[in-house]
């Protein structure tokens, strides 16, 4: 019906007071990079975009914090932190468009969660406007603050259903001075979690990425597409992109190499290609990140984001593949990969159909198969409208009732992002 | 009035249903190691102790999680993790008595927050009993799970006012293989945050403790008491206990030493004693941890726990000292120290009086002086009853109103730990 672009928290508060009085639904929108229909609007809704609130208000190089408005793109935060010799560790493909407010509202994940946690762990303070226009400013800058309830948690990962985030204080980290990257090959899935835990210990906590690629992913991206060179030869069921970041490139090179040699000797891995230049590192990451290339091959593509215990992941992926192949024997095609260090598995797949009922059937298979593993239907993308029908796979009635209690308490008229989550 | 010791979540649920029906106040108690009157009871209250619910239900060595009942002592968790070749990183002096449920309810901090975060960051899943006896079980085991609201946040750090924690899934970390510890001396406070940030970068993220001791602390513990040997000679205004933990003792020794040499050359520090044995390391930590010794000397002692930006901490401490010395010129004595890497400052002090009004006057000075720095009246100890009168120093009316909204929604009869926090 309308799009409103407030220029300040006060302007948004006025908008919310008016919408609350009128019972008008409000859909907050950030960079529109979400994948679960978290910010889609109907002709009866008012969209609120934070794009004009895009200032970096303060960068405290001593205290390692950055205070930003919600509309600042993630990439801008990363760049400004780097300019100050610091680092903002959350990173994912949509960094150029995704806005901080949206990334916080969805508790975004990405490539470095194994070491630094999700967006939730990077937020020290928040300001939000509630459904009735009340401004709650909890702009804490301190790592430790137990003075009463930690109110920011109400707005992190709740997909704009309890309030609209307007400003945030972000935690920055020391810039790291070394980076080591390898692609390794694994024959037996049981070695995947063992490699993760061994490297976690042997690399002294500097392990920063552990991205697992199934053969179906590797073959499609590397063998089928001519764009990438194969970093390791042969034909293996699993590949892992391993990256460590530390304080001293020379010493860390030696440590990284000896950790992988130990893994080879112990039989955990059967081959390894260590990047010996930035160019080689980028080439390895380009394989992992070639999602656009995959999407072309798999058109019409469906993307999935689930999580479950790492020990069970190969079995789960095989069961899902079996069921989908049985149902769509001629058209089913799947690629399997994920941030397995954080329990996060992705599928990019096609059943050759864009039919709504068939796609719902795919979702049902993928989500229902999570039940025996107590998995989650959303690792990092949220629920939005898309996954709402499947929420009961991961959350029981008492949990959903408590979510509703919170919603009623903070948004009694149900105007904020209605229909999302539950 | 009574103490109830449930043996299971179901038993506690029955107790809460009865108390809810009767409007009976309930005070949850863990190991009774808190310092802010969070679990004190009057003759009208029912105490609920979780001490009988003390099982470790599962230790998943592959997934690196431990599932425990709330009454398990922290030290038991640490030991069981270590037995499995893993680590539970939260650590503080009361580890032998403090229970996991209490540590979560108060979002406990301690010595390794700079690297691993507070208790909040170690909790993957929770089970809690609400005021009306409803059991909410959110026993997530996954690092990434964005399937709806993250309900555990309601019970972490809310001091038992929104529910009683009965079980938890804890995140374990890889055990580290190296440990390097030093005590360094600093002449100019401006070098304290600079050393923190330089080591954060140069040690590649392996910095695990950064404990600052003011001269008043060091002189009292090391010079006045004959129990400790001085690790560094001379007379300096600040000392910092620095510890790094990594993956390879030999290589990490060299890195640690060269990082401190660089700091010496850059003039950030003026002296350094690196522990070259476990005995020397323990001797350095014993100085930092000699709180009992301090408490004897400072009897009647008062303990404080605040946080503020590291750049402002020396100025704040000096102002507080000036005001207290002016007010109690003959009897005032203070020792100053803290986890400054997490913004956390402690005072152990005495004004020579146990008089309630005088002690309130001390608190007022210490907390009110935080205002210009937007500091927190509680870094890691919580609010309890003790700090409630000062909550407005750190939280504004809109924030307290939102806390009350949550309290009303989850505990409409106000029976859970009444009077705590706000």
Structure description:
The structure is a homodimer of 422-residue chains. In chain A, helix 6 packs antiparallel against helix 8 (249-265). Chain A is built from 14 helices and 17 strands. In chain A, the strands form 4 sheets. Chain A has a 7-stranded antiparallel β-sheet with strand order 14-11-13-12-16-17-15, with helices on both faces. A 5-stranded antiparallel β-sheet of chain A has the order 4-5-9-7-8. The first copy, chain A, has a 3-stranded parallel β-sheet with strand order 1-3-2, covered by helices on one side. In chain A, strand 7 and strand 8 form a beta hairpin. The first copy, chain A, has helices at 9-22, 74-83, 100-105, 113-116, 119-122, 191-202, 215-224, 249-265, 278-288, 291-297, 313-327, 356-368, 391-394, 397-410, and strands spanning 2-4, 26-29, 46-49, 56-60, 65-69, 86-87, 123-129, 135-138, 164-171, 173-174, 178-186, 207-214, 238-246, 271-274, 302-307, 333-338, 344-350. The longest helix of chain A is centred in the middle third of the chain and has 17 residues, at 249-265. Chain A has 422 residues and is an alpha+beta fold. The first copy, chain A, is globular. The two termini of chain A are 24 Å apart. The interface between A and B is large, with 102 and 102 residues.
Helix content of chain A: 25-40%
Q: Runs of chain A with pLDDT <50, length 5+? A: none
Apparent shape of chain A: globular
Radius of gyration of chain A: 22 Å
Mind describing the biggest β-sheet of chain A?
7 strands, antiparallel
Mean pLDDT of chain A: 96
Number of helices of chain A: 14
What's the number of extended β-strand segments of chain A? 17
**Strand order, sheet with most strands of chain A:** 14-11-13-12-16-17-15
Helix/strand/pairing class of chain A, anyone?
A: alpha+beta
Strand content of chain A: 15-25%
Distance between the termini of chain A: 24 Å
Q: Which two chains touch over the largest interface?
A: A-B, 102 and 102 residues
- Counting copies of identical and different chains, the oligomeric state is homodimer
